[in-house]
Write a structure and sequence with these properties.
297 residues, rod-shaped, disordered N terminus
Length: 297
């Protein structure tokens, strides 16, 4: 509630200044005047929300004055309230407390805004006051409930053929030897290859035959490399095969047509052989994935 004039009295408080406490009747705990605020429960003076250092006895005296606005508070009343059971030079103590209060409030004793001195009698608080409640500390808002993130699904286990690694390696090596036999046959019987190329219309023969021989020589080098790396279980064999696989598909795709070079073979048998040879590079990849599963994670 706000006082309507400077001489009204705030009757919400009983002051037990000797104990340094404010006994509340109707629960207001704060008295405000201009930019100042006095917390009667904590006995703290604040200016614009910032605490001002003021010793305990001057704060008690200020509490006595602001809770009797416009009224004369005599020096005898101050002595009884602040020093009831102490033998002190209370005259000096009161003067010192008033000086400290005025210094904290920046109050000029010659032109007072807050505390008026009635010489030889006492003091009067002349500013308009407002009684209220201390602002409760802000209640932190509860943290939003975040549903737990479901764990990421486990990656599928690497593919492994349901056969021993030793057998997988043996099959891979056998495929390489099969290709080496094919390349060797082409190099050993160039005349037969020559006639097959002419029959297929792959001319001029001096160009196509040389290309077939060159392809056979390059393919032999690739097969020897695969035999040595996978056959001896080199730790990088899986990664090397993975990078080499696109080239291997092209080379093996060309050699898949080799049944057409065999004279006297039925066309249906030749086509079945082509289909089987076209699948062989993918069978090799399956065997390598089973032997080196970490390479294909």
């Amino acid at each position: 509630m706000r006082c309507q004039h400077a001489w009204c009295r705030v009757r919400f408080f009983q002051i037990d200044l000797a104990a340094g406490m404010v006994i509340e009747k109707f629960q207001p705990t704060v008295v405000r005047f201009e930019m100042f605020e006095l917390d009667l429960r904590a006995l703290e003076l604040r200016k614009n929300g910032h605490k001002i250092h003021l010793p305990l006895q001057p704060t008690r005296l200020l509490a006595l004055l602001v809770t009797h606005p416009g009224e004369l508070v005599t020096r005898d009343e101050i002595e009884k309230k602040l020093w009831p059971d102490h033998i002190v030079d209370f005259e000096h103590a009161i003067n010192d407390a008033i000086k400290r209060i005025r210094r904290a409030l920046l109050d000029d004793p010659d032109k007072p805004k807050y505390i008026e001195t009635l010489h030889g009698r006492g003091y009067r608080f002349i500013a308009t006051v407002e009684a209220g409640h201390a602002e409760p500390p802000p209640v932190p808002s509860p943290d939003p409930v975040v549903p737990p993130t479901p764990p990421a699904p486990a990656p599928p286990p690497p593919f492994v053929l349901p056969i021993p690694n030793r057998l997988s390696r043996l099959l891979f090596v056998a495929i390489q030897f099969g290709y080496l036999a094919l390349y060797s046959a082409v190099l050993h019987y160039p005349d037969g290859v020559d006639q097959a190329l002419i029959a297929l219309g792959l001319t001029p023969i001096h160009v196509t035959l040389r290309l077939v021989i060159l392809l056979a020589m390059c393919s032999i080098a690739v097969r020897i490399y695969l035999l040595s790396s996978v056959g001896w279980n080199h730790p990088e064999a899986g990664a090397k095969f993975r990078r080499l696989f696109p080239i291997l598909v092209v080379i093996d795709g060309l050699w898949a047509a080799s049944p057409l070079l065999v004279e006297g073979v039925d066309v249906g048998v030749a086509l079945a052989g082509i289909a089987g040879l076209a699948y062989v590079p993918f069978a090799q990849r399956t065997l390598v994935r089973s032997l080196y599963p970490d390479t294909y994670k």
